[in-house]
Description:
28% of the residues lie in helices and 18% in strands. It has 18 helices and 27 strands. α1 runs parallel beside α6 and α9 crosses α12 (268-279). The longest helix is centred in the N-terminal third of the chain and has 29 residues, at 74-102. The radius of gyration is 37 Å and the shape is extended.
Amino acid sequence: MIKTRYQGFAENLLFALNIFIIFFLLFGGGIVIPQWLQPMGRMHPLIIHFPIVVLIMAMVLEFFRFKERFSTEKLYQDFTSYLWLTGALFAGVTAIMGLFLSKEQGYDGDTVQWHKWFGVIVVFVSTLIYWCRSTGWYNQKIARSGAVAVVLCLVIAGHYGADITHGENFILAPVWHPEKKLVPIDKALVFQDVVEPIFENKCNSCHNPDKTKGGLRLTDEKALLKGGKDGKLFVAGQPQLSLLLQRIHMPDGEKKHMPPSGKPQLTADEMNLLYLWIKENADFKRKVIDLPASDSLRVIAANYLKPVEETEEQFDFAAADDKVIKQLNNNYRVIYPWAQNSPGLGVNIYNKKTYQPKMLEDLSGIKKQVVSLDLNKMPVKDAELKTIAGFVNLRILNLNFTDVTGANFKVLSSLKYLRTLSLAGTKLDLQGIKAISELKSLTKVALWDTGLPENEIAGLQKSNPKIDFIKGFKDDGKPIKLNDPQVKNTAFVITKPVGLELVHPIKGVEIRYTTDGTDPDSVKSMLYKPGVIIAQNTNIKAKAYKPGWYGSDVLQVNFYKSTYTPDSISFIAGPNEKYSGDGAKTLIDKDLGGNNFGNGKWIGSQKDLVVYLQFKQPVDLHTVTLNCMRNMGSQIFLPIGIEVWGGADAAHLKLLSTVKPPVPEKNDPFTLKGMDCKLAASGKLSCLKIIAKPIQNLPVWDPVKKQPGWVFLDEIFLN
Length: 719
């Protein structure tokens, strides 16, 4: 083949590229890529497919070049040679781009190294084949071996490249699913078995030891706590300030939305799990079963875990007669099956005022079947323990807050199956309680608030190492923080005045509250007492105080009055499709959206949101309230302007109110705020048009900048 001037230039360039690659491999540790050259490195993923295609074509032609029908075909031989030269050249350029890219922050680890070395091997082998294929010793066996070697290296380099870009085992993931055993809920840790798998499946493709995008790794506790170049990933206990939640709740189109558009997105449950985990102080060691049974984090986590493996206890007695059970059941004594298809029964006795020892004696007909007996807060005396001892198959006995002293505990020694005994809140006799040692089957005894000295409980524990004595809270004299007050109201959208119901589980606590938006203090703020009436839009902030304790965190709750509901509501200018809720009716369904704007209860838009409401019967409106969210980390601002138009019909609307909230500031906190629009006197109205305007140019201090912000509404209240 006669070489052209261009071919000679290309060969010289190929030689230079190989020398440069060798130099980079030898001395790359001390090379710093200038910023103006970094875009060239980032073009690596853009052009990498071209040399792959060209080299595969060259391999196929090379594989058959020595066949008789092709060996004398000049066009075939020349074309194959040009393909090898072109493929080797572009492979060299692509490899250099990849070497430049690997010098940027975030590309470390074994996967990157394997990808790099197999990539440069492709360059060296394809160059070697091109230079040697015209020599006399180059034969069919060498040609086919070289072609296969190039393709094999391409496949391996591509595999590691895909792992870097899309996460470990990206290529085989659709067809190879290593079986992951579900962890039983009673053995599961919240982080390790519920939260960490979310990071593994949705985040680690970009935030792993091989590819730490943004300087962030999500592969272990230490890395999570460290965060990335933008700071801490989360603030334990404060989800509204946590960068992680801000990024995952950004709209899909935003540059900083995570996971990036095109990659598997988090489900609503996964986002809620991360929110709740951070809200509950992002504990890395906590067990799932340590959470209350009704806790939202535990409820959602249970969907990802294996139920507790329970071995149903086998009983050696027959089931009781259904007619007998029916006769014994009444308003103050409930008898129920201990388990499905089990002959065992549980008994609960209620109402302290109606309790009589005869209520226990009447159970003699089913005494063999009773395996659980709950007498919590009943005035049970020591004398009744003899009757209880007759329930020979009893496993669980609850005597919390009863009048038992323990002086007659010895009679319970006949209960050879009794495992759990609860005596919390029951004032016990020290000598009598020692008879617990004779209950050989006991494994757990609750003794908190029994009046027993701690050293005596310690002595019991030492004498009975197989029993777990639960003694509750130990007062070491150091102040501890009160838990928050609780609001017992179940409805926060009201149509008529309601009483404010605040409670605290600890006796002697004072609850102070405010309604002006300020945080309550322990001296000047109003002292809560039953009888406080809420009759209009009200922001309640409450805090618990008690001498010797630290004050609680602030409980904040909003009440909204809603006098009128329109007969129809529609959008003139609607929301973003992702944040459209259940259509316009979302704004009048009286269902508040809470703190999570991605839960389907919020309406969001980056353009003017225009809502049209109609009433069949004209109404006398004075105030329109828009419940809005402010979440600066997700570019959600209060509207920069609200307009309310009203009239008798759509053709005769006039401007009734204009509201312009204060200019946003960089450190404005997360809030849910009712924006009140006072209407000018206009008589009765049949139609309303409400316009909520988002900020169109984000402030210079916002990290996104030069883009419109978001406005989010969950309800419109009419009064």
